[in-house]
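Recap quiz, item 2
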Amino acid sequence: MENKREILSVKDLNKSYDAFNLKNVSLTLQAGSIMGFIGRNGAGKSTTLKSMVNLVHSDSGSVQFFGMDIKTHESEIKQRISFAFGGVDYYLQKKLGTITSVYKRFYDQWDEKAYEDYLKRFELNPNKKVKELSQGMRVKYGLALALSHHAEILILDEPTSGLDPVSRDEILNIFADVVDSKQASILFSTHITSDLDKCADEITYIKNGEILVSEEKDAFVDSYRLVEGSMDQFTEAIKSIIIGCHERRGEFSGLIRSKNCEIAKGIKCSPADLESIMVHIERRA
Amino acid sequence: MKDLLYKEFKLAMHPTCFIFLLMAFMLLIPNYPYYVAFFYQTLGIFFIFVGGQANNDVYFTTLLPVPKRDTVKARFGVIVIMELAQIVVSIPFAILRNSLNPLENQAGMEANIALFGLVFMMYAIFNMVFLPIFYKTAFNIGLPYVIACGAMAIFVGAAEASIQLIPALKTTLDTLNPNYLPQQLAVLLFGILVFSFMTTLAYLKSAALFEKIDL
């Protein structure tokens, strides 16, 4: 986190569909960090990520990588970033070696030595077909391709969805290694909050197409507290500050902003985690 | 562009395209509507798109560091190469057919130079109809292909009917008589011009449509 250079900046992105709108989506990614992009299914995570790389055309707003606009410097930017939907899910019948032989021709900075090293490290056999790889191995192959052309930003849409806990942990450790060794910064979407507990430096939370918050993870988690108590403690003052309140058998529980702790004096307050924050915020709707 | 063409042949190419080149042997059939031998290649091209859809080709390709319109250009490149290959491979079979069996083809046009001109026009119609409709969505393949086949069938039907029913055309175009070579060469030249013009137009339209869609 020592290097606070801004390498990706999304400003006021808007996109309207018949039944869904992205509204003024803004976020920035600093060099040397991992940003987790969370939100429930359908919140707009994929649309936002796709808009960043021009797969989806935003109605307004701007996306800049390394100070260059994606709309005018698309090819130049794509040389320096990598975007993937989960793991490699194209050309399933082809061998990894065949796909790589095509892929590498497009990248000026392709590093064959690094690629060989990643194959070894991730135990990928170039003679295997993509369809023969597990989901976790497909994510690793995608990472091997991205890191071998020295992508400086990895944008990954749900890379951990559908993985077993061990594979997920492995992928998250690779993310941490990649960022710690200053090879790349990572922006990845997920709805699994424990992924972010493990490795995210920053969090961007999207709900119904709007960014609720985009800040450092620890500050974000620290800005909420879980509260619980009996219904006779459930005063009007508490009612006005509680988020995602749940009542059952004469007890209530919910989430409050840490700054409102004073109002909830005398009520049991405990630190919140990402999962409970997300659940309560979504429940408020 | 070289790299994208490499990608098209290494990853996207469907093997049936090469197999259908062999359909050129159908020109040896004594009585046959010879357009059919050329039609098969459009089916091979259709399979490239079917394979592309099954393999998420559009995402693989558009995420590469190349302009979107270049990916369309490369796909057009492959299509034109295969169509021209089909025509080139057919030439020796046409020569062979006419030297082995000089009897008239009872089922339509002779395998002569004018036929090749008409085939160029048929491919031009295929490219003009199938590709821009496909690139409107970069997803729907079936309907654009059916519409393109319909358009080709109407063209072939109209061309064949005119040649069989109009004596001046019948005499000059549906014959192996070398006296009518200039007329037949004119049809070939016209076919090549139509093919070049319509395919270029189809590319410009397809690229513009593809750049607009959300993937």
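Chain B has a mean pLDDT of 95.
The first helix of chain B runs from residue 2 to 12.
End of item.
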